[in-house]
Amino acid sequence: MSNSKNIPIFTGVLAKFLLKKGLKLVDIAPNKNAPRETVFYFERTDKVWEAIKEF
Question: Is residue 15 part of a domain?
Answer without folding.
Answer: yes
